[in-house]
UniProtKB/TrEMBL annotation:
Family from the record: In the C-terminal section; belongs to the PPC synthetase family. In the N-terminal section; belongs to the HFCD (homo-oligomeric flavin containing Cys decarboxylase) superfamily.
Stretches assigned to the DNA/pantothenate metabolism flavoprotein C-terminal domain: 10-218
Record's catalysed reaction(s): (R)-4'-phosphopantothenate + L-cysteine + CTP = N-[(R)-4-phosphopantothenoyl]-L-cysteine + CMP + diphosphate + H(+); N-[(R)-4-phosphopantothenoyl]-L-cysteine + H(+) = (R)-4'-phosphopantetheine + CO2
EC number from the UniProt entry: 4.1.1.36, 6.3.2.5
Source organism: Paenibacillus konkukensis
Co-factor remark: Binds 1 FMN per subunit.
TM ranges: none
Protein name as catalogued: Coenzyme A biosynthesis bifunctional protein CoaBC
Source domain of life: Bacteria
Keywords of the record: Decarboxylase, Flavoprotein, FMN, Ligase, Lyase, Magnesium, Metal-binding, Multifunctional enzyme
Its job: Catalyzes two sequential steps in the biosynthesis of coenzyme A. In the first step cysteine is conjugated to 4'-phosphopantothenate to form 4-phosphopantothenoylcysteine. In the second step the latter compound is decarboxylated to form 4'-phosphopantotheine. Catalyzes two steps in the biosynthesis of coenzyme A. In the first step cysteine is conjugated to 4'-phosphopantothenate to form 4-phosphopantothenoylcysteine, in the latter compound is decarboxylated to form 4'-phosphopantotheine.
Binding locations of CTP: D103, K113, F147, K161, K165
Pathway: Cofactor biosynthesis; coenzyme A biosynthesis; CoA from (R)-pantothenate: step 3/5; Cofactor biosynthesis; coenzyme A biosynthesis; CoA from (R)-pantothenate: step 2/5
Span list, region Phosphopantothenate--cysteine ligase: 15-225
Length: 225
């Protein structure tokens, strides 16, 4: 059924993967972030390399080692990640956005360490640009895969994100499910395209999820989606 060996499936393709969590600075020694380990994105980068792709990994804060054999670009904030991704978009064939991007950042970043004063303090946050939505609106030939972390109404939220952000595929995980999400070596995902649910995968290692996802992407690209 598949005409190419897996090692050549993505030969000649330029793939950009984002992974990890972003870091939003409050002052020189403090920041806001999330529990993303980077594992899912790293597994995707590795799987793409094993299929012969030229892989660029844009990575924020991660708690595991970055994979070998992929070009790694380190970023801190969502704004940095946006620049790194948008700047490289024209040359890419496939973009996979597995990073956990902070939705908000502190409205101001203090240049000096903030001193404690009153019994209460308020931290004002402002919304970050949506990187996936931005590339969805700029894309020309690129095949775009988004992610979604959900705790309820997964199908509905996933389809809404896919359409709003103009993705070709969207991978959603129910983070409340056993064996899924942040920090785990396994994941339970549902894959959607513009017409709805494509596949609901069982509990799999993140490496297996990555391979499965890239086989699907390669298939779709070959069929000219
Ligand atoms: N994403 C992004 N830029 C942001 C926020 C999210 O690129 N500022 C991307 C993530 O990398 C992921 C997808 O959007 O691929 C979905 O992230 P998610 O947090 O599930 O969705 P949001 O649109 O942020 O909605 P919400 O958090 O309210 O569910
Ligand atoms: Ca979010």
């Amino acid at each position: 059924e598949r005409f190419f060996g897996e090692k050549e499936l993505l030969q000649g393709k330029k793939v950009l993967v984002t992974a990890g969590g972003t870091v939003e600075r409050i002052d020189p020694v403090r920041y806001l972030t999330n529990d993303s380990s980077g594992k899912m994105g790293f597994a995707i980068a590795e799987a793409a390399r094993l299929m012969g792709a030229d892989v660029t990994l844009v990575v924020g804060k991660a708690s595991v080692q970055t994979p070998e054999g992929v070009r790694t670009v380190r970023v801190e904030s969502a704004q940095d990640m946006l620049e790194a991704v948008v700047g490289r978009l024209p040359e890419m064939d496939i973009v996979i956005k597995a990073a956990a991007v902070a939705d908000y950042r502190p409205a101001e970043q203090a240049e000096q360490k903030i001193k404690k004063k009153d019994a209460e303090m308020t931290l004002k946050l402002v919304k970050n640009s949506d990187i996936l939505q931005t590339i969805g609106s700029l894309k020309t030939k690129q095949f775009i895969v988004g992610f979604a972390a959900e705790t309820q109404s997964i199908d509905e939220h996933a389809m809404d994100k896919l359409k709003r952000k103009n993705c070709d595929l969207l991978v959603a995980n129910d983070v409340t499910q056993e064996g899924a999400g942040f920090g785990h070596d396994t994941n339970v995902v549902r894959i959607y395209d513009r017409s709805g649910l494509v596949e609901a995968l069982p509990v799999m290692s993140k490496r297996e999820v990555a391979r499965h996802l890239l086989l699907t992407v390669a298939d779709r690209i070959r069929k000219g989606d």
